[in-house]
Amino acid sequence: MIPLRPSLLRRPREALVCSQCLFGPRSVRPEAIRGFLSSSKRRTGIADDQSPSVFHKSYFSANRLNDGSSSKGGLLSSLASSDVKSKSNVSSPDHSHVSQVNSSATAPSATIATEATSELPHRRRKRLKEESNATGKPEPSLPLDASAQLSNFSSTLPTTSLRRKLAAYLALTKPRLSFLIVLTTTSAYGMYPISSLLTLDPAMTPLPTLSTSTLTFIYLTAGTFLSCCSANTLNMMFEPKFDALMSRTRNRPIVRGLVSRRAALLFAIGTAVTGLSLLSIGTNPTTTALSAANIFLYAFVYTPLKRMHVINTWVGAVVGGIPPLMGWIAAAGQTATIGHDSWRDMLFSEESIGGWLLGGILFAWQFPHFNALSHLIRDEYKAAGYRMLCWVNPGRSARVALRYSILMFPISFGLWWVNVVGHGFLVGSTVANGWLVREAYRFYQHQGANGTARGLFWASIWQLPILLVGGLMTKKGLWDGVWRNIFGQSDEEDEEYLYYEDEEEVEGEEAKLQNAASTRAPSTRTSTLSTV
């Protein structure tokens, strides 16, 4: 350091910098650099390996267009992205060499800190995927589910707010899961075969409807949703202390104290009673019994079994396969005749094969979907004490996901074989199932690494709606009505229609003929007597 003359102390503050320090570099002794850095660290309390060695003008500017920096955020972001220099570089006698070192690339940890504060969400997802592919490490867990998001929203509202309570109780229902179950139920209801009378009558509307009422559909939808709400609430009520150990479930309303366990129990009982009552009034006893069995299986068998044995996944798959069977039986009950509407006829007759196949699709779908999801958070499942296949036996988890993905092909073919769907379903289901099997094979090949678990998860998310919507769009006999409405009905079809006439109409015509004959007989006798 160059000592300042006493005369300089009387000058303005702007003139207190010498010309050499202001306009040009100069050689600095290493001892001076070390002494200056160590003294500044002692004053600020920063360790040797934590402080930047050189200041940059971007530290004091928040606009990178003005300071020429490529980083955002001005002071804070620049400090976070500053490089950590080694002591050997600081001790270099050449000031130009120090400048070159200071312009080197930033450290990985500092780069991550910068991107965490200023990186856009899609950029962050892309970077994490690339890092996972490069390092082979598992990707982070998925974003918060709908229940956690609703709980966060509820916690921001005033305590006495009605919206706070509604959001908290809605979070108990797991809305996305409940919506998926309702979708599978109503899709099976819509895929029930159309009566031959409806397909041959050109006056009928060419929509995927049954010989059922809209009121039945409403009862089925509302009753199924309320039953799901009850089962999901009981599931949360039984395991709040275990949910608190996992990032995916620690924001649930009971864990956060937004809803008490007593209030959750009353809510579960109320939704169960209401949902089962609606199903009993609007559908049939068999559908109601299946819904009650599903609540029991999910809340009282699957939930405690998660901490006991890996077979819980298979029990959960059975729970997922029952709703499509419920929708099928609800539709079958509308066309069943008296004497053929018992639970044995509904479940084990030849007409029930389509419902079992749709339930089989949901049963098989559970394994690639859940095994991929659980693989992403397998360490949390292990820490919480849940006996999941993803950490108990990861290799078997991948094999099971691949096995049941392949099973989708024969089940989809079976729906076409029993005349539930048309030829177009074979094309759409083959593409969707092929995509799922491809991702399941990659998941099995890499054991969930290199982003394969996330790829299988998203493939399962899209594959199921493709199958359900595709089944509704290619329903057997649906487009026959459209064709006849556009181009008319042929004579051959008119003759075929006669074979499908209702027996009650035939009996009514015969009764009319007999009445006409009996009324004509007395008039004939009267005319004969008058002639005589």
Automatic annotation (TrEMBL):
Its cofactor is Mg(2+). Keywords: Heme biosynthesis, Membrane, Mitochondrion, Transferase, Transit peptide, Transmembrane, Transmembrane helix. One of its GO terms (cellular component) is mitochondrial membrane. It is an enzyme of class 2 (transferase). Pfam families: UbiA (PF01040). Residues 85-146, 510-532 are annotated as: Disordered. It comes from the Eukaryota. It is found in: Mitochondrion membrane. GO terms for biological process: heme A biosynthetic process; terpenoid biosynthetic process. It is a multi-pass membrane protein. InterPro entries: Protohaem_IX_farnesylTrfase, Protohaem_IX_farnesylTrfase_mt, UbiA_prenyltransferase, UbiA_prenylTrfase_CS, UbiA_sf. Its EC number is 2.5.1.-. GO terms for molecular function: protoheme IX farnesyltransferase activity. Residues 103-118, 516-532 have a biased composition (Low complexity). The chain crosses the membrane at residues 177-195, 215-238, 259-281, 287-305, 312-333, 353-373, 406-436, 456-474. HAMAP family: CyoE_CtaB. Belongs to the ubiA prenyltransferase family. Converts protoheme IX and farnesyl diphosphate to heme O. This is Protoheme IX farnesyltransferase, mitochondrial. It comes from Penicillium rubens (strain ATCC 28089 / DSM 1075 / NRRL 1951 / Wisconsin 54-1255). The lineage of its organism: Eukaryota, Fungi, Dikarya, Ascomycota, Pezizomycotina.
